[in-house]
Amino acid sequence: xxxxxxxxxxxxxxxxxxxxxxxxxxxxxxxxxxxxxxxxxxxxxxxxxxxxxxxxxxxxxxxxxxxxxxxxxxxxxxxxxxxxxxxxxxxxxxxxxxxxxxxxxxxxxxxxxxxxxxxxxxxxxxxxxxxxxxxxxxxxxxxxxxxxxxxxxxxxxxxxxxxxxxxxxxxxxxxxxxxxxxxxxxxxxxxxxxxxxxxxxxxxxxxxxxxxxxxxxxxxxxxxxxxxxxxxxxxxxxxxxxxxxxxxxxxxxxxxxxxxxxxxxxxxxxxxxxxxxxxxxxxxxxxxxxxxxxxxxxxxxxxxxxxxxxxxxxxxxxxxxxxxxxxxxxxxxxxxxxxxxxxxxxxxxxxxxxxxxxxxxxxxxxxxxxxxxxxxxxxxxxxxxxxxxxxxxxxxxxxxxxxxxxxxxxxxxxxxxxxxxxxxxxxxxxxxxxxxxxxxxxxxxxxxxxxxxxxxxxxxxxxxxxxxxxxxxxxxxxx
Length: 479
Fold this sequence. Notes:
Elements (H helix, E strand, L loop, with lengths): L8 E3 L7 E10 L3 H11 L7 E12 L5 E12 L5 E8 L17 H8 L4 E5 L16 H22 L3 E11 L1 H15 L8 E7 L11 H4 L8 H14 L14 H4 L10 H6 L11 H9 L7 H8 L10 E6 L9 H12 L5 E5 L9 H15 L19 E4 L6 E6 L6 E6 L5 E7 L2 E5 L6 E8 L4 E8 L2
Parallel strand pairs: 5-6, 5-7, 7-8, 8-9, 9-10
Antiparallel strand pairs: 1-2, 2-3, 3-4, 4-6, 11-12, 12-15, 13-14, 13-16, 16-17
């Protein structure tokens, strides 16, 4: 069915993090020829609802603390079965072209629309320096990625309240692919670091194939002089970090050899594609980097005291402790964003005591080939953790870290009994396999006996609580 485009401008002059203008980009009836066929053909998910897309501009701040306008897309399900919906963030991958962004309904925004077809109000920020935001995009900069993401979620909350027939249910889900995976991770970490959990109640996060540990993984492109088809990333990063942090170079010739020092920097004006930039570069960094700059970078690879090394490490976001559900999707065959980014993050987070972090290797696929199974896996993961529609919007809150329950026998081979210490308080029980699959889900106000005789041997995670607080115990099945 033909897509219908029309414009609706709604001016709301409000404070930081609120909508300035909402513009309808496209309404797709029955998901039509465009959305339904695209999403089903890609195998992303089984669409449930029609989706209406809005271009939004909203207040945020730049890296100097100045108030600026950013743009993005909000995709909303039409006539959903539930009258209270969660917000999902989808962070897009690396973009150089200023207009190739979600607010312009670019092809990648289809991934966010797939979430909206399942009943999520989906927000997709363009990021600073892209879309309506002027200047150079601060590529791979965790702080600004998180800032524009949190602010577009704030804008979406207000948009739902002011313009839609349903309400926000105070649940947030975070995902994104490639640079968007780094964005999702940065946003989750920013919420914890700034103690924003009450404002952003994150139910689950699924960062997808992001460069979380660039100082040890992506840096190999320079350190080992690897043949690499996306050398434009290296220059994009160096230029962005110089603008943000300074101290890396004074003129382009300080880090680029001739003729690249003259020819390449102007291409990052938002009008040239990354493909075209890569075509103008050599396949190895030694072919375009200034030899002295390269030698200094290599010499400092142990101490990492130079401005560039410090900037790269400042934007690593692999070594910390998430508190809630996180599942990291990646592909072992990815030679663009190396899989060690994900495996390093999983090892570090687990060692830090994060008991709900999972990872899944989707196979020997390229970076491009990993997109569809990753977003499909994220949607399935979210759907398994998403509270039911009829769960009250305001859940009786249990004091943090006070959820207690008994689990026995453990190890077990035939049955387990779970006793809830909070009588007359309905708590949700979820049991996960070691791969993150939900094997059992129920609710209990007192005690529950579960037959595990047919369960495979191994380690399981038993979670009891609600959307705000929960406790986890490890269960071992031995037959």
